Amino acid sequence: MAIDEAKLTDREKELANQFTATKDLLRKVDKQVAMVMDLNKCVGCQLCSMACKTLWTNVEGREYMWWNKVNTMPGKGSPKDWERMGGGYKVLFGGKVRDPLRGKLPTKKEFGDMWKYNWDEVANSKAGTVHLQAKNEDGTIPDWGMNWDEDQGGGEYPNAFYFYLPRICNHCAYPACLDDCPRNAIIKREEDGAVVIDQDRCKGYRFCLEACPYKVIYFNFIKRVSQKCIFCYPRLEQGVPNACARQCTGRVRFVGLRDDPKSLIYKLVKVWKVALPLHPEYGTEPNVFYVPPLAPPRLDAKGNPDPSKPRIPAQYLRFLFGPEVDSALETLSKEMEKVRQGGKSELMEILVAREWKKMFEPFITDPATLERKSA
Ligand code: SF4
Ligand code: SF4
């Protein structure tokens, strides 16, 4: 809700100004790291999720967390139906005013809980065959998971479709989570713009979980603090790219500095304009961008392709990536056709990503080299 300034006392106005100034300071950055994910190349293998799990969330209280997850679209995602949970801002007057929208607090079960399996029973039962069964932490049978609607998708045969949407924290320019934290525990790191939660300052109020419209913050029920993707900043500090990006099977992910004209991120976002934020209407200005998925044309009643009708409904892609998606898809199609006709395209050359180092400039140190040095 917007505050009615006319009803504030002078003291309240002074405090409100101090609060705004503090939040402006916590948001201030020298440089901003960013990621672009090319959805045309994601195969849903979840290797990125496993890289992140092994590195960051394989410890007490974090077992149910997926700081990186890959959802099947169209689907309900995780937490279940996160796109209906609210949060973010209503952006007014061309971005001069951001009116916070309080959202819903996702539950652990909506995130997909932490499944346990009856491995011991299956391996050692003397009472006949025991089938493998997942159970939630409280012993109930799971009815949701990180990618529960895997490969379900939308549409009707023969025009069914689906694609994968890898998700991490967007390290937004206007992080709703930061604005809503009464403890000022959430900051953007000045040196790279990663949004992080100070674990000593956090008191576990969970307003950030309600405020984040992407619902990518988790509550650690053992440590009683909020936790989330840290954009692998300890790796970036050593010149090493994020684990999810370095381990990606499909060379889907580009990492770099958003405002450096030499970076491929800049070229994809600002020059070619084919990489777009997810749900830009949430008003947080994400620093994770997506190259939207192209799909084969729809088949008509006789089974012939109709190139005038896309398999993935344009309306659905506009819902996800905003109106800019139309021109992004047009550019992608044109450049792809140019190459098919034997021509050259800088854009296609970037997206094919022949050399991994070019995808991550300036974070091109091989972690294997670092390990050898420190051994
Ligand atoms: S995606 Fe959510 S948690 Fe991440 S910075 Fe944006 S508002 Fe905060
Ligand atoms: S590792 Fe790459 S290809 Fe595999 S799911 Fe993650 S983003 Fe997609």
Can you describe what's shown?
The structure is a single chain. The protein is an alpha+beta fold and 375 residues long. It has a single domain (32-115, 142-374), classed as Alpha-Beta Plaits (2-Layer Sandwich), CATH 3.30.70.20. It is built from 14 helices and 16 strands. It has helices at 10-27, 47-55, 108-111, 119-124, 176-179, 207-211, 233-236, 243-246, 264-271, 314-321, 325-340, 346-352, 356-360, 367-374; strands spanning 33-38, 69-73, 89-92, 97-100, 116-117, 134-135, 163-167, 186-188, 195-197, 218-220, 225-227, 253-257, 276-277, 288-291, 297-299, 305-310. Strands 12-1-14-13 form a 4-stranded mixed β-sheet. It has a two-stranded antiparallel sheet with strand order 2-7. It has a two-stranded antiparallel sheet with strand order 3-4. The chain is globular and about 70 Å long. One iron/sulfur cluster is lined by residues 42-48, 70, 164, 166, 248-250, 252.
